[in-house]
Amino acid sequence: MHTDSAASAMTQDELKALVGRAALAYVEPGQVIGVGTGSTVNRFIDALAASKIAIAGAVSSSEASTLRLQAHGIPVFDANEVPELSVYIDGADEIEPGGCMIKGGGAALTREKIVAAQARRFICIADESKWVARLGRFPLPVEVIPMATQRLIRQFAALGGSARVRLRDGVPLVTDNGQHILDVTGLTIDDPLAFESMVNNWPGVVTVGVFAHQRAHLCLLGTPQGVRTIA
Ligand code: 5RP
């Protein structure tokens, strides 16, 4: 770990902008890169556009990021058109020292995992509030097929968890993939790899928001003292 620059009394949004800019160091001209979803990634996209680094384009993890990239004139490719990405840059809701994460606060977890799996390197950009010793404080997002919702709620209850369907404007949120999200509290996630494999095997689960198989290789953590680079 090293500190890149000094800063003081920065807001969370300023920390997100700081790591968004720091991620530019991992983008090389001519590449197609993977781009995640969320407010931190939005700052990265804006910094990328301002930087004039001439990338070939991006594979995006959500309709929202696609729109933002295209608004900046950055070409967006279908994941099937690009066999491998050199780098995937995305935020997290929680990240622990081993690089395992909870993601999906923005409901984009399934496409995020797909794009991350295509990349040689996952760079997580996050403000320091996301740093945890152990995963589980943030409600775990799980994308589910709606007909399995009630059974999955019972399966999480058997683990001590409390699962709720995520709502938007009073009705179940519908993801970019046409499915629903459960947010699960009260879980203990001691072994993220085993937990991810177990829940992904439950019928009706599209994607669980534990990213252990697709963990981050590097974390750029925004702190009031500057960017901590954690490998
Ligand atoms: C979206 C995600 C985001 O990366 C995560 O929710 C962090 O978002 P933000 O940068 O807005 O704090 O997983 O599905």
Describe the protein in words.
It is an enzyme of class 5 (isomerase). This protein has 231 residues and is an alpha/beta fold. The chain folds into 2 domains: 12-130 and 213-230, Rossmann fold, CATH 3.40.50.1360; 140-207, ACT domain (Alpha-Beta Plaits). Helix content is 26%, strand content 26%. The strands form 4 sheets. It has a 7-stranded mixed sheet, with helices on both faces. A 4-stranded antiparallel sheet has the order 9-12-8-13. A 3-stranded antiparallel sheet has the order 5-6-14, covered by helices on one side. A hairpin with a 5-residue loop joins β5 (94-95) and β6 (101-102). The termini are close together. The chain binds ribulose-5-phosphate. Ribulose-5-phosphate binds next to α2 and α4.
Strand elements, count: 16
User: Oligomerization state of this entry?
Assistant: single chain
Biggest sheet overview: 7 strands, mixed
Bulk shape: globular
Number of helices: 6
Strand order of the largest sheet: 3-2-1-4-7-15-16
Residue share in helix: 25-40%
Terminus-to-terminus distance: 8 Å
Which molecules are bound besides the chains? ribulose-5-phosphate
Structural class: alpha/beta
Strand content: 25-35%
Report the average pLDDT across residues.
95
Taking all Cα atoms into account, the compactness measure Rg is: 17 Å
CATH architecture tag of the largest domain: 3-Layer(aba) Sandwich
Protein name: Ribose-5-phosphate isomerase A
Function: Catalyzes the reversible conversion of ribose-5-phosphate to ribulose 5-phosphate.
Organism: Tepidimonas charontis
Keywords: Isomerase
